[in-house]
Design brief:
This protein has 3 helices and 12 strands. By secondary structure, the protein is α+β, with helices and mostly antiparallel strands.
Length: about 250
Amino acid sequence: MTRISSIPMKRNLTFIISLFLVCIFSKPAVAEDIYIEYSTKDKNGRAIDTKIYLKQGDARVDLYIDMSKMKLTTTSLILKNNPDEVTVFNSLTKSYTKTIKPKRKQILTNYSITVIGKEKVGKYNCTRIRVKSKDKSFDVWNTKDLPAFKLPIENGQTNLDKKLADELEKKGISGMVVKTVYFNPGTTTPKLTMELKKYETKPLSASLFKIPSGYTESKGNPYKNMSPEKKNELMKQMMEQLKSKQ
């Protein structure tokens, strides 16, 4: 996988996805398979499309990242039989890595919650809230038109700010996140917007939640002991792959 951790948009997206998980409470699992699409854009128009597949407690997340004319794809699996482990595919090396999700601190501290009111986003009836802390401010639109679901995360709250989730639930805020707008610090100028584009209940192939045929497990840094020639070959493959997707 190409390293993009230095890109601010990805850091902001990580925060919004964490928030998205906070706002989905541990309701009874939906029996049907679910397919969800979110579109995320920053103020410069750079985009990330997120596709989420849920089947009987297993989850797959595909990210399609379009930045500076480069298009990258990442795939991650979180399976119910080992909810603290994340499997990430590397299509360039035909390999996968398994990592344990680190224990995280609360994503927010000393925050306030304001219920702005009822609003419609697309065809969904939503409740809009605003959350503000010292260095973060964002609005979230939740709908009860769509059922909340149980993710393969221990107790439904691992790595999340459970206090925030509990406070939102007490205010009657639950259901699916339809839209999130993350603001520049101290302003109401949108910095990043994540919006639901599709929600479907349809049969999903079990193969989506399995490691692709021909992939081998890579432990540690797969590039650490790679020869300069192999690194150059891999870089050439990566550039050709990026070029073909532009």
